[in-house]
Fold:
Amino acid sequence: MATGLATRISAEGGRTFGEGYFTQPMLMASATGWSGRLQALGVYNFEGYTLRRGELSPGIYGEGYIDRRHPHTYVHELMLGTRAALGGARLSLFAGKGIVPFGSEDPMLRPFTRYPANHHLAQILERAQIVAAARLGRLTIEASSFNGDEPEHPGDWPNTDRYFDSWSGRATVVVAPGFDGSASVARIKSPEDPAGFGLNQNKLAASLRFLATSNRPIRYAMLEWAQTTEWLGPRKDLWSFASGLFEGSTRTPIGDLAFRLERTSRPEEQRDKTPFRSVRPLLDFGILGRTLWESVNVGWSRGFGPQRSGDVQVTPFIEVSHYRARPLERVVIASPEATFGGLRLLSFSAGVRIGLGAMRGEMGRYGVASTSGTPN
Amino acid sequence: MLLHRRICCSIGLAAVALTGCDDSNPGVGPDTTNKPPPAPVVLSVAGQGEILSRYTAEVWVRGSVAYTSTWGTRNGANGNALHVWDVSGNTPQLRDSVLIDQAVTLGDVQATDDGKYLIVATELGPGSIVIFDLADPLKPRQISRFFSPNITRGVHTAEVQPVNGRLYAFLSVNSSSLPSRLVIVDLGDPVNPREVLSRDMGRPFIHDVFVRDGLLFTALWHDGMTIWDIGGGGRGGSPQSPIEIGNVKTVNGSVHNMFWFHDPTNNSKRYVFVGEEGPASIGNRASGDLHVVDVSDMTRPVEVAMYHVNDAGVHNFTMDEPNGMLYAAFYNAGVRVLDVRGDLGTCTAEQKVSATDSRCDLEKMNRVRGIGLQDRGKPVFVWGVHFVGGNVYASDMLNGLWKLRGVTR
Structure:
């Protein structure tokens, strides 16, 4: 899969940016053996080659990028696991590098091409981990132990001295066919300082999700809440960042229409060489204020060609977003206004997504935790 | 001892009564007298030099001239300006602004003891120290700039001090995930600075140093404070080859800065004050306590006392040593003045931090003598302080430079 994307972002009374990308280029593979009891999953992501400077995306932050989505690591996922049954329960155990069981689906597999601002509040990606899952009836419980350090660059690997210093858990209940709800908790040690001395994070997330199981017009809807609280040593609850998000998509005769509302707070950080990069680890572990980002996003897409496995799928799309940033503290030393020249932004994006072969329906739910479904 | 008596007597009889300034009892603090200690005073503001175009960072004052550095980005303006102030009157008057090429943010600024040179650290884009000639103190003239592959990622702080008569700059380099690093530069010829040491230390940061009497104190964050012989410790150390003497890990770590107090009234050199920089939302609120370390035995320094301000954190220090007053920048809590003369490590059970923490609490020991800039009716965020000539100058990130009257005994 790969996506060609052109984006134009203009700030009210401020600057205009126009950029083009080759985003989310990746190869996905999976294999099963031993009568289905062994499974391997892999995703190689090429963004380290095509998206070094990051993808312009107001409000987003993480891994040393700010207002740009960072490129993912080359080995985005490489997990190997097995399944078993015990009484009425089905169990699985997976290990490798992958998506931690926490929060919601990877935005890459959701209706919008461009990521929401809450990516680092609602997902934990690219960690070396062991994931155990148990499924009993409609309830699935997942638990993971993983390395807390986030990637420093696309070629980075989890630090071996940080293995298993962080953990997460997620419970998912299938309320009815197509409807599920989940709640997650995680504790991450020093994600932003690979040496392990940085701020720690306590994370919570909850979501309600609908995925169409038949040919009804409403294809997908999700309501999500996520919160990250940072702390260090005896200084608990230094500050929190929270997000509320609703998104959905519907199929119409002219194509698929998508809608997203988001309200997410984030830290402002000392910028490095460009306004879109921040210093890692944070100097003296200080942030430069907090801002709230509110956005309304609408999108259109339409697939052309046979949507079958093995065929080339071509899906042009258009996405329009309006962002408003507001200071959450009296003083915001590194205001995004310095970057954009204004705090109200209009974004227009257009592009085409090209896929070949079978696209995975989900990412980050391994073994018996898999619900399999594509929110597109 | 003659010097001791002169300084002691110059303080006045009232001070003698309060401090127990007596040869036979040099370590007695004011809290052990029967006379109740004075309540903290509100520091009187003489004037303010307002700067709203950039965020103000460190301050250094020599004579009637003050220098302030700038930091970060404010309204699109980078922290690349060195501001020069005439502080001979009550209100600091801005006399010059020197823009430093390629700089994004400046860290420390400090004049040499002889007043001939001024050193400014640049952090990010790229790291360096800039050396100015102060033949005309109001018109600093750049005479050299030191770059090195070892400091390219940024000089967070720089201290300049003589060691056995030769001038050195001590640079703390820590702005990346690479190991933090101390770099020492020989400024014997300030036009041609020469690197003499580069050594990785501090987890995750080396933040600052303090140099006095041939001893080097390094603030190594969670590795605590380490004391090195660099020429005055009698162990054969030098700036080229520091030899470790001792280390202490203060409570909560995050060792950020230090001041080794020499009390001229009794020649006591017993205490080092250590600043802990906890996490902060810069411009809004901070965290971190002031720690008191007893260095009577340099090989085994031990923390004996602390000072805490709720919802605020300590930053840089200055001292009025003849009066035994420590002035601490406390970011959003303005300026705090502590009486640090006498014994800081002996206190009653009620004056200890808690039943399980045997350190003395300087606030419970009634050591707080003054509070500054909390009466301005507007937020302040005080980065640095410098006590000169009875006045304390406070650099306020949000508002510029304040001139306040010091506390007298």
